[in-house]
Specification:
The chain is of the alpha+beta class and about 150 residues long. The protein is built from four helices and six strands; from the N terminus they run αααββαββββ. A hairpin with a 5-residue loop joins β3 (about 85-100) and β4.
Length: about 150
């Protein structure tokens, strides 16, 4: 009977050790805002494919057209098989939150997208994005879900 109580106390103690202070959460949210801006700016400067590869965690997942694309190699293949030209994608988070442990975060906000198809038709779209971020072993924020 004492074992479950001891385990519960240990779990509470462990979880409280990994909780980030409120002032640190503000700083972490600023880091995520900077990561989002860097991601967006990289897409503008180097292209959408390069940005999604550069900011991807090794276990990243993309949700595109009712399909889940898992891993950087699959993400690269996905972009390599796109036939769109002159692709532009811009976004900015409206909301950022960080886990109490400080190693995961999520954002959501609005995006705009434009491209030219193989038959020279123009595509313009806008919508809502949702990104999940994880701090990698080097301390950098990388997306794990987009």
């Amino acid at each position: 009977m004492k074992t479950p109580i001891i385990i519960c106390i240990a779990l509470v103690a462990i979880s409280s050790c990994s909780t980030v202070k409120k002032k640190d959460l503000v700083s972490l949210k600023q880091e995520i805002a900077a990561a989002e801006k860097a991601f967006n700016d990289y897409a503008t400067e180097y292209g959408v494919k390069e940005a999604f590869l550069n900011f991807a965690h090794k276990t990243a997942v993309l949700n595109r057209r009712d399909s889940i694309i898992v891993g950087k190699e699959a993400i690269e293949n996905y972009f390599d098989n796109q036939t769109l030209m002159e692709v532009t994608l811009q976004w900015k988070p409206d909301f950022i939150d960080v886990s109490s442990s400080g190693d995961m975060a999520y954002t959501y906000g609005k995006y705009t997208f434009s491209a030219i198809t193989a038959d020279s038709s123009e595509i313009n779209a806008s919508g809502i994005f949702h990104t999940v971020w994880k701090r990698d072993k080097n301390g950098e924020w990388k997306y794990v879900y987009d």
